[in-house]
Inverse folding.
């Protein structure tokens, strides 16, 4: 387990520190799935309520993040890294090998009140170490348009070589409007 100290002191409107709890990073297992699902579902509901994602997009994301789906992913070799305080899971990122040369990052989420303190960066960094351990030369992630710029600057801030690939086509793309970003190590 890695202890990670958030890099920014976030102060709430009541003057209290929001991120005073130390945050630890570790690889997740099956017993963490329900807490990971809760975090991901909360995030997509929040993005829907904020009007950032349409109800149709939210429904697709909730459906594709059921506990059985995440359990299958772990069963099939995907690795999940979580960030947690003493009381809650506050971030997650998955990474999985898609063939001998390529890996895919997915489900990169940080709980709303902990964003902007470096947790997303620490999770991606840990997944990049896993990619190196897996000996893949490249990786990619796919995200809805509203998250692409944030994720691009996050990956680029880690010194990773990133390129936006041309848009996907197909039925799912028509709903989610995702874009794909390729990473070369
Ligand atoms: C994307 C997400 C995981 C980033 O996590 P985070 O913990 O807030 O990110 P960090 O604090 O580690 O920020 C790392 C870098 O990302 C970029 N970044 C973070 N928030 C940003 C924002 N709101 N706008 C632009 N860039 C941003 C910056 O480059 C930042 O580096 P800096 O702090 O040195 O400037 C988080 O915003 C999130 O959970 N979003 C909602 C879920 C989602 O849409 N996930 C995508 C899955 S499809």
């Amino acid at each position: 387990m890695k202890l990670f100290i958030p890099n920014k002191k976030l102060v709430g409107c009541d003057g209290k520190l929001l991120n005073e709890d130390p945050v630890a990073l570790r690889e997740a297992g099956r017993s963490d799935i329900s807490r990971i699902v809760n975090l991901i579902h909360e995030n997509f509901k929040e993005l829907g309520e904020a009007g950032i994602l349409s109800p149709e997009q939210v429904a697709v994301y909730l459906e594709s993040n059921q506990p059985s789906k995440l359990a299958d992913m772990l069963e099939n070799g995907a690795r999940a890294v979580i960030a947690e305080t003493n009381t809650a899971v506050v971030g997650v990122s998955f990474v999985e090998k898609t063939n001998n040369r390529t890996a895919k990052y997915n489900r990169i989420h940080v709980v709303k009140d902990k964003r902007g303190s470096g947790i997303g960066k620490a999770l991606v960094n840990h997944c990049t170490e896993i990619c190196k351990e897996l000996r893949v030369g490249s990786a990619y992630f796919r995200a809805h348009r509203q998250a692409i710029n944030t994720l691009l600057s996050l990956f680029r801030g880690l010194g990773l070589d990133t390129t936006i690939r041309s848009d996907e086509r197909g039925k799912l793309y028509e709903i989610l409007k995702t874009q794909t970003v390729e990473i070369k190590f």
User: Anything to note?
Assistant: The longest helix spans residues 33-49. The radius of gyration is 16 Å. Residues 43, 108-110, 115-121, 143-144, 147, 149-151, 153-154, 157 surround coenzyme A (CB under 6 Å). The mean pLDDT is 90.
